[in-house]
Design goal:
Blueprint: E1 2-7, H1 15-29, E2 33-38, H2 52-56, H3 64-73, E3 77-85, E4 88-89, H4 91-103, E5 112-119, H5 124-136, E6 150-152, H6 163-190
Parallel strand pairs: 1-2, 1-3, 3-5, 5-6
Antiparallel strand pairs: 3-4
Helix pairs in contact: 1-6, 3-4
The chain binds flavin mononucleotide.
């Protein structure tokens, strides 16, 4: 089983990285393969709504987004950890997720998602909600924990003093492994639920 971890921070060894390390300890112990990408300092531009992906099922911009979509396709779970910038996930994370989810058309149903928001002080619950929306519009179950997944710290490494946040990261990682295994077993036993052809309406017809 494999988990793709996206670290939205531009800072090497920042607070997002420390929280991810805590999750990886659990994934390693459980024999889950991890592919981690730190995208915060990369030039990931936003979606320009050109529609190229409607036909080609990949983004017109040939950068990390298409590469990460390929890894996501082969993964059982996706972890997204973002620093909070002005009460939201940072810009690189949003640009990446908009383009990765919108441009790809592989079946994302029952891949397990987990999101974390890291902040100095505020904006974590709004950011957590924002990130979970990418999962819940795609029939992806969310691995939850003991809080609305957050971690606190300002300077690099300060999150090490947020014992509760790091403990929650371990709990979420364990819950995620459990869900991925349970879903794999259930897929073998029952198969995925019947998929309907999706209807797109936009309230004017
Ligand atoms: C541009 C910018 C905006 C920020 N906005 C917020 C904010 O809205 N709320 C907050 O609590 N912290 C804010 N912070 C602080 C970061 O979220 C905090 O330092 C976090 O630990 C960074 O995570 P990292 O070490 O993984 O990069 C902001 C930092 C930057 C650089």
């Amino acid at each position: 089983m494999k988990v793709l971890i996206i670290n939205g921070s531009p800072r090497l060894n920042g607070n997002s990285s420390k929280l991810i390390d805590e999750m990886i300890q659990i994934f390693d112990k459980e024999g889950i393969q991890v592919e981690q990408y730190q995208i915060g300092s990369k030039a990931i531009r936003g979606c320009m709504a050109c529609g190229y992906c409607h036909e080609h099922h990949e983004c017109v911009f040939k950068d990390d987004v298409n590469r990460l979509a390929g890894i996501f396709k082969d993964s059982d779970g996706l972890v997204v950890v973002s620093p909070v910038y002005y009460g939201s996930a940072n810009g690189s994370v949003i640009s990446l997720l908009d383009r990765m989810f919108y441009s790809s058309n592989f079946d994302k149903r029952f891949k397990v998602g987990a999101a974390f928001a890291i902040a100095r002080r505020a904006g974590t619950t709004a950011t957590y909600d924002e990130l979970n929306k990418y999962f819940t519009i795609n029939q992806m179950p969310v691995a939850s924990g003991r809080y609305w997944n957050n971690g606190f710290g300002r300077e690099q490494g300060q999150i090490e003093r947020d014992e509760e946040g790091l403990q929650n990261a371990r709990i979420v990682a364990r819950n995620m492994v459990f869900l991925m295994k349970a879903i794999q077993d259930a897929k073998e036993k029952y198969g995925l639920p019947e998929a309907e052809e999706i209807k797109y309406t936009h309230f004017i017809k």
